[in-house]
Specification:
The chain is α+β, with helices and mostly antiparallel strands and 749 residues long. Helices cover 29% and strands 26% of the residues. The strands form ten sheets. A six-stranded antiparallel beta sheet has the order 28-27-26-32-33-34. The chain is globular.
């Protein structure tokens, strides 16, 4: 038998062999046999009593050493936006270790609050990082946010969630109220494990205020989706310290007839445009097009507080009553915004176009510009149509007419390229000073809108092409072609109405455009448009180029809105690096993390879209609440197992028709084709069909609308069976659940 080891030797072995530290392993390592094992056991127990060791089931571990495989909680970020994690449980006397989470491209993106099982490795790194962590798998996601109305009770109270998918109420203990008052809008998080019986428990983490207040509608969405709506002090101070830019080494572009064309209520102006005839004899009838974009990269330097906060937000969020900007107003509404008659730094693009709109060449400049007019779409269009006003008359000949001439050439090129012909209307919700909805309509769409869109698309293509040619890493805007199963579902739907989408060919946008054109003006035009839209994949950001299917472009990157999109700021930095314009280009460490950044900003973009949609739904429900019982026309916008959704023509509001209210037969749901089909009649219900409905219910706080279906494609619908004895046991249970859910949704008086 070897000599019994000292306590220090035992601790050193356990520290160096955390994966092999059972009593048997220790005895084998030191050659301890027989009765000596009793003494070893006593020594290990003593080390545990002294706090040097922690027994974990049948093994021992140093409580001040992070295990090689541990459960970690994502609880922070570095200045570059990389994730940091700490042990889920830490009993050591020393400070808990901090691990830098190394990305795993094949695993889902992680977020703050997630728990992961990870391999850890001690590293010599700048404080506070002590380890690297490689996630094995995510074992729990961050606690879901609960936004609802608090109702006080003797035992503490309850929370009535306002989110459509948040389901039942939550119970709040007296100590978890956080000072909330009865009827107040609150934000909460789940508290403790879910019980098999009774209500789930929650603790209130924030008080939002009066749910009936004018601005509560957008606040609900902001809190529900975790959108940061206040800036840290250091970010506010950094923005306030920013100063106007002098010409210096920049190209002086102030002589160009650049103008901005934006919505009438725009605060941030990212882009300015100008055009002129090309005087090169080799390009007869050609045009010179200038697109100037705000130079946000000059103010938002990599790794700065402004940069960290911009990456955290990912993008600006737009609501009917407010904007939650990506950058503080000192930048987004002032120094970075291309206001009229003031000097502003920009990254500008000079494009040479042929008379037919073909791009003959382009070059980028880092310059100083001055906008000669800040116009709305309505003003610009009126001037182009011959109705100039005081703002447009001075720039009519120098700016507006040349821009429209270049636009006609761009139109010809667009027609040859054949991007997807979907032209979707945009809703406009008008509020009064009290925050109440006064009207809901669809925004007018002019050639002025299309002119700016074509200029921006062209600039984005030039940015992607320039960076790709220089082999500079960048974030592409990717829109992949539809999946095979989605196309099969589309073929089935359009086949039901006598249209064809041919098989056995590489799908191109022109094939879908033929389908859309064939349906245009007919009975099923809306249905075909909706079905084509639903077959599309969702666009995202990535450092790999998979093309942009919808625009029919081989390469595409977002460059034109750096005030409100972080992805555009990345492209600006990449251009600065390629052209060697300064030290504020794309740093190497950020270039290496483009996949993670792309995943992050794609997620914040989706978050903003959902939050904006939820806010619009709530405003529309409030607007329609006084019209319950009114008959309205609309279109089937979606189909599900439990019913169908109808979008109203007048307001664009979406509401649910429960499956039980569709007709006196059983409907089969086809998830792939997104259709309902009557078992007896063979009646097919698909997106895009015309419908007439009666508004049965409107709940403003959730944004929920319920309809009774009266007609489909002009044919009356016989309502499903109601009352006692209707249907079998399974149908009775379904109706009972619907009634119960509806009762829970009714606001308390």
């Amino acid at each position: 038998m070897n000599k019994m080891p000292s306590k220090d030797q035992l601790l050193e072995f356990i520290r160096e062999n955390p994966g092999a530290a059972t009593k048997r392993d220790i005895a084998k390592a030191f050659g301890i046999k027989g009765a000596a094992r009793i003494e070893l056991k006593a020594m290990l127990r003593a080390l545990g009593d002294e706090g040097h060791l922690e027994k974990k089931r049948r093994s021992f571990a140093d409580p001040d050493v992070l295990a090689p495989v541990a459960v970690l909680v994502i609880d922070g970020q570095t200045s570059d936006g990389e994730l940091l994690a700490s042990p889920a449980v830490w009993t050591g006397k020393a400070a808990a270790p901090r691990a830098l989470v190394l990305p795993n491209p094949s695993a889902p993106a992680l977020a703050l609050g997630d728990r992961v099982l990870a391999k850890t490795e001690a590293v010599d790194a700048p404080a506070p990082i002590t380890h690297h962590a490689r996630p094995i798998r995510r074992i729990a996601q961050a606690a879901a946010r609960i936004v609802g109305v608090f109702r006080q009770a003797d035992h503490g109270g309850r929370i009535l969630p306002v989110g459509k998918g948040q389901g039942d109420e939550y119970q709040v203990a007296v100590g978890d109220r956080n000072g909330a008052r009865d009827g107040e809008l609150v934000e909460a998080e789940p508290a403790g494990p879910k019980n098999r019986m009774g209500l789930r428990k929650a603790r209130i983490v924030a008080r939002i205020g009066d749910p009936s207040a004018p601005k509560a509608v957008s606040l609900i969405a902001i809190h529900e989706h975790g959108i940061p709506d206040t800036f840290p002090d250091e970010v506010i101070e950094a923005a306030a310290a920013a100063a106007p830019v002098e010409l210096g080494k920049r190209t002086d572009l102030r002589h160009l007839p650049l103008i901005t064309i934006d919505p009438a209520d725009a605060r941030d102006r990212d882009d300015a445009v100008a055009a002129m005839a090309d005087d090169n004899p080799a390009n007869p009838g050609g045009h010179i097009l200038w697109v100037a974009i705000a130079d946000v990269a000059h103010y938002v330097r990599p790794g700065s507080p402004l940069d960290r906060e911009a990456l955290k937000r990912g993008n600006s969020c737009y609501f009917p009553d407010r904007v939650v900007p990506m950058l503080p107003d000192a930048l987004s509404g002032d120094l970075c915004s291309l206001h009229g008659d003031v000097d502003r730094p920009c990254i500008a693009l000079r494009i040479v176009l042929s008379a037919q709109g073909a791009r003959l060449g382009h070059e980028f400049k880092r310059g100083l510009m001055r906008s000669h007019a800040a116009l709305s779409y309505e003003q610009a269009q009126a001037a182009a149509d011959g109705y100039a006003d005081a703002a447009t008359a001075p720039v009519l000949e120098s700016a507006i007419k040349p821009l429209w001439a270049a636009y006609k050439a761009l139109q010809a090129e667009r027609d040859r390229r054949q991007p997807l012909h979907l032209d979707l209307p945009e809703r406009k919700i008008v509020l009064d000073e009290a925050g109440q909805v006064t009207s809901v309509a669809f925004r007018d769409r002019f050639d002025a809108h299309k002119l700016i869109e074509e200029c921006m698309v062209l600039a984005n293509v030039c940015a992607a092409e320039t960076l790709e040619t220089a082999r500079q890493p960048l974030l592409y805007r990717v829109h992949e072609e539809p999946a095979v199963d989605k196309l099969e579902a589309l073929r089935e739907v359009v086949g039901e109405v006598g249209l064809t989408l041919a098989k056995g060919q590489v799908l191109q946008t022109r094939h879908l455009n033929r389908l859309l054109d064939a349906a245009a003006g007919g009975e099923f035009a809306e249905m075909v448009n909706m079905s084509v839209l639903r077959s599309m994949t969702q666009a995202y950001y990535a450092p790999q180029n998979f093309g942009h299917f919808g625009l029919n472009l081989r390469r595409y990157a977002h460059f034109t809105s750096p005030i409100r999109r972080y992805a555009d700021l990345i492209v600006h930095r990449a251009l600065i690096t390629v052209h060697e314009w300064g030290r504020d280009g794309l740093p190497l460490d950020q270039a290496e993390r483009l996949a993670d950044i792309g995943t992050a900003v794609s997620a914040t973009e989706r978050r903003a879209m959902v939050a904006e949609r939820d806010t619009t739904d709530r405003y529309l429900a409030a607007y329609l609440a006084e019209r319950v019982g009114t008959e309205m026309d609309g279109m089937v916008s979606g189909v599900a197992r439990f019913g169908l959704f109808v979008r109203l023509d007048e307001t664009g509001a979406d509401g649910l028709v429960p499956i039980s209210a569709i007709g006196r037969e059983y409907f089969q749901y086809d998830a792939d084709a997104q259709t309902l089909k009557g078992e007896k009649s063979g009646r097919l219900i698909a997106a895009g069909m015309r419908a007439r409905v009666r508004l049965a219910e409107a709940v403003p706080i959730t944004g929920g609308l319920a309809f009774d279906l009266l007609e489909l494609q002009g044919k009356p619908i016989v309502a499903g069976p109601r009352g006692r004895g209707a249907g079998g046991p399974k149908r009775k249970l379904v109706r009972a659940k619907i009634k119960r859910d509806k009762a829970k949704r009714k606001p308390r008086k």
